[in-house]
Design goal:
Blueprint: H1 10-15, E1 33-34, E2 37-38, H2 39-44, H3 69-73, E3 80-82, E4 85-86, H4 91-101, H5 108-123, E5 132-135, H6 140-146, H7 150-162, E6 171-173, H8 185-192, E7 196-198, E8 205-213, H9 217-228, E9 233-241
Parallel strand pairs: 3-9, 4-9, 5-8, 8-9
Antiparallel strand pairs: 1-2, 6-7
């Protein structure tokens, strides 16, 4: 089962995710890992089973066909979302170590399982295949501080596995904003107004890729500029959705 995610020794780190079959589990150090997680730890990940069919907001009752109140009141400029997990323990700790500490061994198993779920959904027709993946752009200074853009990292990983091109330059940030983590939904939307600019021709069907959808403000603003630039069908792909 998931244990506290402590720092691994140098020797252990070399074994974690060393091969697809085998290696150590990043969460409990079990030797029965597959793509970096053992099955009990994989079973502990909080599946986003019941959710809004548009924004993937977790719901408290069995339904994947209903719209949440926010999507009913303020229909988003994107069409649907594919978000397999809820942003809760222990997933939030894994994403945090990957995103803020640069410990990619915690992100790899999530991206691998994410790509597998997407492949199944594309194959059975649950979602249409995008013509391009658009990673959520990151402020240049924040990217230098962190060392990488996790949205781009996720998009490139799943893009390779699903054979979908990734366009990292299609949308760019044109000004700096306050950190979104400090703001509520309304403040986030105001904070992001006018921050993104489309730089070239937009494919008709795209998927915005991010790590976590919190209030949905970022993907709403991104989808708006993509829609205005000619995108006809917009999906949102993310690892996790924060419960309301």
């Amino acid at each position: 089962m998931i244990k506290r995610l402590n720092w691994l020794s140098t020797f252990m780190e070399k074994k974690v995710n060393s091969v697809r079959h085998g290696g150590l589990c990043v969460a409990c150090l079990s030797s029965n890992a597959f793509n970096g997680l053992c099955q009990p730890c994989r079973d502990d990940l909080p599946v986003n089973r019941w959710h809004c069919r548009c924004c993937a907001l977790p719901l408290a009752f069995p339904s994947s066909e209903l719209l949440c109140g926010d999507c009913l009141k303020h229909p988003p400029p994107f069409d649907t979302s594919f978000v397999p997990w809820r942003y809760q323990y222990p997933l939030n700790g894994m994403i945090g170590r990957y995103k803020y500490n640069g410990q990619r061994k915690f992100g790899r198993p999530l991206m691998s399982d994410f790509a597998k779920s997407l492949a199944e959904a594309l194959q059975d027709g649950s979602i249409p295949k995008p013509l391009a993946l658009i990673p959520a752009p990151m402020d240049a200074r924040r990217r230098r501080q962190r060392g990488f853009n996790q949205a781009q990292d996720i998009a490139e990983t799943i893009g390779r596995q699903l054979n979908i091109p990734v366009d990292t330059g299609l949308v760019r940030r044109v000004r700096r904003v306050r950190a979104q983590r400090e703001l509520n939904r309304e403040a986030r939307l105001a904070n992001l107004r006018g921050v993104f600019e489309v730089t070239s021709v937009v494919p008709e069907r795209v998927a915005i890729v991010d790590d976590v959808v919190t209030t949905g403000a970022t993907v709403r603003v991104l989808a708006s500029v993509l829609r205005e630039a000619g995108a006809r069908e917009i999906q949102v792909w993310a690892l996790a959705r924060t419960p309301g």
